[in-house]
């Protein structure tokens, strides 16, 4: 479980917060974590989600740490690459797409 604390929402009233959480709880999308629980107190508000391995989207988009990726090659298996330089994940995805286009094979994964 992951608990997200909101400290800067002290001006939000109890009913407004509960209504907003009910709306958030009804959202269904493959790219959104379902809300497991929430907690209201005047001083703090908490949201509880299931844990997701490999970090958040923000971490992947803005990380300046080690990035690990692989490129599938039919005759060589996999090439594993480590990068110690800041590479935005969008650039890594772009490199993978260019590689796939060069070999005339696109691999698309359905998240549903």
Structural account:
This protein is α+β, with helices and mostly antiparallel strands. The chain has 2 domains: 2-49, 2-Layer Sandwich (Phosphorylase Kinase, domain 1), CATH 3.30.200; 57-102, no CATH class. The chain has 3 helices and 5 strands, in the order βαββαββα. It has helices at 14-26, 57-62, 89-102; strands spanning 2-6, 35-41, 44-49, 67-73, 77-83. The strands form 2 sheets. It has a 3-stranded antiparallel beta sheet with strand order 1-3-2, with helices on one face. A two-stranded antiparallel ribbon has the order 4-5. A hairpin with a 3-residue loop joins β4 (67-73) and β5. The longest helix has 14 residues, at 89-102. The model is unreliable at 66-85 (pLDDT under 50).
Task: List the topology elements.
Layout: E1 2-6, H1 14-26, E2 35-41, E3 44-49, H2 57-62, E4 67-73, E5 77-83, H3 89-102
Antiparallel strand pairs: 1-3, 2-3, 4-5
Descriptors for this entry?
single chain; about 110 residues; alpha+beta; Phosphorylase Kinase, domain 1; 2 domains; three-stranded antiparallel beta sheet; two-stranded antiparallel ribbon; 3 helices; transmembrane helix; membrane; transmembrane; protein kinase activity; Ser-Thr/Tyr_kinase_cat_dom
């Amino acid at each position: 479980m992951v608990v997200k604390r909101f400290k800067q929402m002290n001006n939000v009233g109890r009913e407004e917060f509960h209504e907003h959480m009910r709306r958030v709880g009804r959202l269904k999308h493959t790219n959104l974590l379902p809300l497991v629980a929430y907690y209201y107190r005047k001083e703090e508000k908490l949201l509880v989600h299931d844990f997701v391995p490999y970090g958040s989207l923000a971490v992947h988009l803005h990380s300046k740490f080690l990035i690990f990726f692989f490129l599938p090659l039919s005759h060589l298996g996999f090439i594993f690459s480590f990068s110690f330089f800041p590479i935005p994940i969008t650039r890594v995805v772009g490199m993978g797409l260019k590689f796939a286009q060069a070999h005339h094979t696109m691999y698309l994964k359905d998240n549903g």
